[in-house]
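C-alpha cells for chain A. Residues wanted.
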C-alpha cells in the first residue's frame, strides 16, 4: 500500500519530481495517490514544481494521467458537500479552485526562478493545458483559472498577442468541427448559425470573454463579412437580408444575427459588473461597430453610419432603450464611487479615474442618442468637448487601439498580490516576526513575590 506522505516526499526530494521522463513514467502515479487521499493543497504544491518541466516538451500536456489529475482537481469543488456549502454561502470559487488560482499567481510572479525573461511561457503553457481538458468551456473552475491567466495577458503586449493567437486557433478549430451536417455538405452553407465556444456572455469571467470576443470579431472581419454587411445595410436592406447577401458575397457560412460581434460585445458590456476594469473596453468595441460606415465608392463621398440598422423593430427598439438606461446607470455608479472616495493622496488617482469614466459613459450615451453622430454631414471639429471629438475621430477612422487610459490598473494588481499572500500563508512561506524573549532583568530591590507579579 502506497502512503500519501511518502509519495509526496518522493516527488519533492527525488528524480521522480525533477526529471520529465521519470515524472511521466512513475511520478504522476505517486501524485495521484496524494490526490486520492484528498490532499488537494499538496497536489497543487507539487504541480507548481513539476508543471514547468512540461515547457521542454509541450506534447506531454496530452498525457492521460496528467489530464486525469487536473480534471479531478477542477471537479473537487463540485462534490455534493462542497456544492451544498456553495449554495448556502453563495460563494464562488470553491476552496480548491481558489487555491489553484493562487498557485497560478505564484507561478506567474516567480517566472525568473524558472529561468525565463517574462511570464509569457508560463501563461502560454497553462492556457494550453486548461484548454486541452475535455469540457473546459463549460467548466467554471477551468474558466476561473483561464480568467486569471487572461488578466495577466491583457496588460503585457507580447503575451496579449500570444494569448489572442491561442483563442483564434481554438475559435477556428471549434467552428471547423461544428460545421458538419448533410445539408451543410450539399449546400456549403450553415443555416443554423455558428456553434460558439461561449454562446452567451460570460459575466463572471470578463478577461477571458475579451479574448474570445476579440477572436470572433477578427474572424468576422477577416472573412469580409462585416464590411460586406455594412455595405448592404447602407443600401437600406433589412438586417436579415443584408446578412444573407453579405454571406453569399463572401462565400462564408452566415452566423445568426444575434451572433454578430456588435451584439456580442454589447451583451458582454451590459452583463459585466459595472466596477470591472474591462467594462469601458467592451463599450469601446461596441461603438467601433455601431459607428461603422461603408467604404466610399468615389472620392469626396461621406457615407452615413449604419448603427441604427441593428436596432430596427419593436424588440430591438426596447433593447436600444435598455442600452441607454445601462449607460446612465454606469454614470451614476461612477459618480457615487467618486463621492465615496475621500480626497487623500493615496486615493486621488481612483477619484480621477471615476470622474474620467463617468465622462466617458456620458459621451457614449450621447454617441448613441444623437442621430447627428451617424449623419454623413457630421463635422467632427465643430463638436463640443463633451462628445470627445478626438476619440470619435479615432473610431470613425477605423483605429482599433485599446483605450488603456480608462482601465483601472491598481485593482487587478491588488488582487494578484492578495492571491500570492494567501498562497504563501497556507504553504508556510510567510516570514514570521522575530519575537525574541526579553532578557532576564535582575532587579535586586524587588522581593521574590514582587518579581513573580
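Reply:
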Amino acid at each position: 500500500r502506497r502512503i500519501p506522505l511518502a509519495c509526496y516526499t518522493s516527488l519533492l526530494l527525488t528524480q521522480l519530481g525533477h526529471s520529465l521522463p521519470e515524472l511521466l513514467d512513475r511520478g504522476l502515479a505517486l501524485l495521484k495517490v496524494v490526490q486520492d487521499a484528498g490532499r488537494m493543497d499538496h497536489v497543487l504544491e507539487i504541480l507548481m514544481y513539476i508543471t514547468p518541466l512540461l515547457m521542454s516538451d509541450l506534447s506531454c500536456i496530452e498525457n492521460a494521467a496528467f489530464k486525469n489529475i487536473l480534471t479531478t482537481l477542477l471537479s473537487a469543488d463540485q462534490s455534493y458537500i462542497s456544492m451544498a456549502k456553495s449554495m448556502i454561502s453563495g460563494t464562488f470559487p470553491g476552496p480548491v479552485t481558489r487555491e489553484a488560482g493562487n498557485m497560478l499567481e505564484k507561478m506567474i510572479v516567480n517566472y525568473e526562478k524558472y529561468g525565463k525573461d517574462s511570464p509569457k511561457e508560463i501563461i502560454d503553457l497553462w492556457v494550453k493545458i486548461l484548454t486541452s481538458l475535455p469540457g473546459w468551456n463549460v467548466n467554471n473552475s477551468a474558466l476561473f483559472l483561464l480568467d486569471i491567466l487572461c488578466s495577466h495577458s491583457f496588460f503585457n503586449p507580447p503575451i496579449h498577442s500570444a494569448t489572442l493567437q491561442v483563442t483564434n486557433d481554438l475559435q477556428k478549430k471549434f467552428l471547423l468541427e461544428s460545421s458538419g451536417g448533410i445539408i451543410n455538405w450539399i449546400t456549403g452553407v450553415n443555416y443554423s448559425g455558428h456553434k460558439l465556444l461561449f454562446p452567451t456572455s460570460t459575466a463572471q469571467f470578463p478577461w477571458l470573454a475579451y479574448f474570445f470576443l476579440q477572436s470572433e470579431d477578427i474572424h468576422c472581419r477577416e472573412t469580409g463579412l462585416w464590411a460586406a454587411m455594412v455595405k448592404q445595410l447602407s443600401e437600406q436592406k433589412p438586417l436579415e437580408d443584408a446578412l444573407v447577401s453579405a454571406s453569399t458575397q463572401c462565400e462564408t457560412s452566415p452566423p445568426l444575427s444575434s451572433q454578430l460581434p456588435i451584439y456580442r460585445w454589447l451583451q458582454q458590456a451590459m452583463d459585466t459588473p459595472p466596477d470591472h476594469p474591462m467594462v469601458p473596453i467592451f463599450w469601446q468595441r461596441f461603438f467601433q461597430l455601431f459607428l461603422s460606415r461603408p467604404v466610399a465608392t468615389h472620392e469626396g463621398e461621406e457615407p452615413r453610419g449604419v448603427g441604427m440598422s441593428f436596432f430596427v423593430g419593436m424588440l430591438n427598439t426596447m433593447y436600444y432603450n435598455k442600452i441607454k438606461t445601462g449607460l446612465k446607470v454606469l454614470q451614476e455608479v461612477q459618480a457615487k464611487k467618486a463621492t465615496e472616495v475621500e480626497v487623500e493622496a493615496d486615493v486621488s488617482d481612483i477619484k480621477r479615474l471615476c470622474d474620467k469614466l463617468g465622462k466617458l459613459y456620458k459621451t457614449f450615451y450621447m454617441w448613441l442618442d444623437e442621430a447627428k453622430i451617424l449623419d454623413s454631414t457630421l463635422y467632427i471639429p465643430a463638436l463640443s468637448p463633451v462628445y470627445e471629438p478626438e476619440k470619435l475621430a479615432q473610431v470613425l477612422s477605423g483605429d482599433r487601439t485599446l483605450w488603456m487610459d480608462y482601465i483601472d490598473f491598481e485593482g487587478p494588481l491588488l488582487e494578484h498580490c492578495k492571491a500570492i499572500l494567501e498562497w504563501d500563508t497556507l504553504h508556510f512561506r510567510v516570514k514570521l516576526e522575530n519575537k525574541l524573549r526579553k532578557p532576564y532583568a535582575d532587579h535586586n530591590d524587588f522581593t521574590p513575590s514582587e518579581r513573580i507579579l
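The longest helix spans residues 314-340. The CA atoms of residues 8 and 412 lie 33 Å apart.
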